[in-house]
Amino acid sequence: MNDSKPWWLILLAICLLAAVPAVAQPSDGQPAISPPEPIRIKIVGGLADVRQFTTFEEPFWRERIPVATGGRVVAEIAAFDRSGIRGQEVLQLMRLGVVPFGTALLALAATEEPELNGADLVAVSPDMAALRRTVAAYRPHLRRILAERYGLELLAIYTYSAQVLFCRHPFTNLADLTGRRIRTSSVGMSEAFTALGAVPVVTPFAELMPAMRSGQVECAVTGTLSGNGIGLHDVSTHVHSLALTWGISLFAANRDAWMGLPEDLRGIITHELGGLEARIWDAAAEETGDGLACNSGGSPCRMGRRGRMTLVPVSASDEALRRRLLTETVLPGWVRRCGVECVEAWNRTIGPELGLMASPD
């Protein structure tokens, strides 16, 4: 009798063997199933080349999350401005699921959705303590906007250091800015400087230094330490200590992508993000002071490069002007762009905190 098996039976056996998962043989001879492949997630982070991304966001996702999840989650992260993504597009791309997890700068996202930036309007929070109160008051409203309009889960809120004014020529207070060309990054900031008699020039962060070097702009608003990091202390003579804005960003997830993770992993990531948020906020407070000290040649200067700029203190007239700008220009301008929903949101959240209520008129 011919013992050879039909060719198709041999082929079937080969296919079945290929479909069987690899099994390791431990020393006791009992088979053990190989561990499952880790879940791989992709993150769009904040601005490249600034400390929030390089020191906090990037190592958190690349190193901390794999450890915290026991290797069950492996993450890749890239800064949005190195990924060919416009900051104004991040939330829409997240809504569509193209970006499942991402960091969105509210000042940029607010060009499409002004209501998002209520907690970081120009002149609202002149110091870190005020900013913490403002964001705490507005956070539930941000969570609701993201869930209802974008299908996103708000997981964390970050802030950069105080956004202050650097100038190439001397000034003693905000009233001295009349006629100067000033780099801004948002509509609201442009409106504020227009009210001061200055000429706003909206300029991306990546183009800030060339604009200052060439004289295209005479002043620029940016973070105390991030400005130092790109060399503003080398091309400017004076820096103001008043926080005009802060540069708040949020970290969120597409709801389908988020709910697609096992519940226990969602719990671990949520817990870890709470720690990351706290570290970023503490660092922003430290960077604000350290950046001002470094730029002006003061001490201590731990994170930046020492400059020789003149530090312009906040005067009583500056504080009065800040409050007037907020009341007469910034808040009414925001309401015009945003509508009655913003009036209601402000008056329910931040307005009582500041003792300043918005009007639809």
Task: Please give a handful of descriptors for the protein shown.
single chain, 361 residues, alpha/beta, D-Maltodextrin-Binding Protein, domain 2, 2 domains, 6-stranded mixed beta sheet, 5-stranded mixed beta sheet, 14 helices, globular, disordered N terminus
CATH topology of the largest domain: D-Maltodextrin-Binding Protein, domain 2
Give the termini separation.
Answer: 100 Å
Radius of gyration: 26 Å
Count of DSSP H/I helices: 14
Q: Architecture of the largest domain, according to CATH?
A: 3-Layer(aba) Sandwich
Write the CATH homologous superfamily of the largest domain: Bacterial extracellular solute-binding protein, family 7
Shape: globular
Topology, number of strands? 13
Number of domains: 2
Strand content: 15-25%
Strand line-up of the largest beta sheet: 9-8-10-7-11-13
Binned, the helix content reads 40-55%
Brief overview:
With about 350 residues, the chain is an alpha/beta fold.
Q: What does this entry look like structurally?
A:
The structure is a single chain. This protein has 361 residues and is an alpha/beta fold. The protein has two domains: 37-113 and 120-159 and 246-290, Bacterial extracellular solute-binding protein, family 7 (D-Maltodextrin-Binding Protein, domain 2, 3-Layer(aba) Sandwich), CATH 3.40.190.170; 163-245 and 299-354, Bacterial extracellular solute-binding protein, family 7 (D-Maltodextrin-Binding Protein, domain 2, 3-Layer(aba) Sandwich). Helix content is 46%, strand content 17%. Strands 9-8-10-7-11-13 form a six-stranded mixed beta sheet, with helices on both faces. 42% of the residues are buried.
